[in-house]
Amino acid sequence: MSASELPWLLLGTLQGVGGVAIFLLVLLIGFCLALDWTKFRRNLGSRVVRNLDERMGQPASYLPPAAPRGPSDQLAGARAPR
Question: Second label for 46, Cα 20 to 30 Å away, from 31, 37, 39, 73?
């Protein structure tokens, strides 16, 4: 191996590693999207129940963003362990 071949060797190595990294990234994102998409399908005949409203045949009702919430500090009354 001569000094003139070294840049081509480094370029080929970077292309190979970059290609593998991009392939794995696309594969991972594809699996995540494919497996996550099943959550958005309608579950009319499914045994999986996301909430009781859906089980009773009614659509789920969600709170609007401006709805008042309870206290945010859930550990306010907690005591420290002895």
Answer: 31
